[in-house]
Amino acid sequence: xxxxxxxxxxxxxxxxxxEALTEEIAYDVxxxxxxxGSAPADxxxxxxxxxxxxxxxxxxxxxxxRDGSAxxxxxxxxTAPRSDSPAPDLVRAVRQTAFAxxxxxxxxxxxxxxxxxxxxxxxxxxxxAGHPQPASAATLRESTGNAALHREVAEALxxxxxxxxxxxxxGVRLAPSYVVALVRPQELRxxxxxxxxxxxxxxxxxxxxxxxxxxLPVPRDRLRAFCERILDGAVDVTRTRASVASAQxxxxxxxxxxxxxxxxxxxxxxxxxxxxxxxxDVPVEAALTRCPDLAxxxxxxxxxxxxxxxxxxxxxLVYVDxxxxxxxxxxxxxxxxxxxxxxxxxxxxxxxxxPTVPQDLQSLLSAMTAWRLTRGPITAAT
Length: 382
Prior knowledge:
Layout: H1 9-15, H2 18-33, H3 43-60, H4 69-74, H5 88-109, H6 112-130, H7 137-159, H8 164-170, E1 177-183, E2 200-204, E3 207-214, H9 220-231, E4 241-247, H10 253-269, E5 275-277, H11 283-290, H12 292-299, H13 312-321, H14 326-333, H15 337-351, H16 358-375
Parallel strand pairs: 4-5
Antiparallel strand pairs: 1-3, 1-4, 2-3
Helix pairs in contact: 2-3, 2-5, 3-5, 6-9, 11-16, 12-16, 13-15, 14-15
């Protein structure tokens, strides 16, 4: 997405229907607030709150406000009611319902290009919010005090438990969607301060877990850029690996955690470079990790090479890493090119697959990947 923004037609179209949308929201809230024939809440009060919340949500979706003062005040979901507001639970319900309904209408009615732009609005907002700002000592104390509360809410989401009651009790605002990011705990700095939603943080199985908030589910083709912006200030992705997965709803967070764990396992074992990694980077490797029987079947093709006395498996790995170049491979292994040719012939004789044949080489590559994921690195002693 470019920095030059334009007004979204969908925002104008939905804004023209504000009154009808407000009526729908009021109806839903009234139905919830007056169960079993009890007296309904003040309809005019609900309409007023809903109208204001719809306008705030539309302002959030308007790209023209991203660089203006409105972006800092109205770009997020409606704020929680003040302590002196009447019926705070009802006020919160109205405003949260209005915000969620407005964004759903925007997404449902937008065309493909507008949906991409709406996602850009959300990504840009959270990206800007993700950059840490200078904080006072009081702010830092409050952040530290909230860490335990955020951890408890994060654990509930990761376990697949209902987090809403816990979040309401602790005053933690939950985002509609989250991206799960795993990093090394020792690489994790203070979480970035986010104006409207908390970046939730905990740790599991020797990994720091971050739940990055987002208004809309982040598609795979935008996931890396989104996470790089949000993680700026929390970790240095140029010096460590981050494994990420997007969860469409709160219910999908546990599955996203498992996906991120798979990516982390693959990138750690295969020693990927630093940066943000996702499932689309390692589809074959992830499939082998999740299917041990298939991995064992592939590895069985390499058993004749294991302990062959001529480091055939390591020779094959170097040959592949150097683009199947005979001269460079021989130099790297400190052997004569004729010796390399002999080893490649032996690999063909023992496995029935020739490294010089593309289809056979692909099978050998998959087998080596399965071996490394299951048994560890392939070295000259393998």
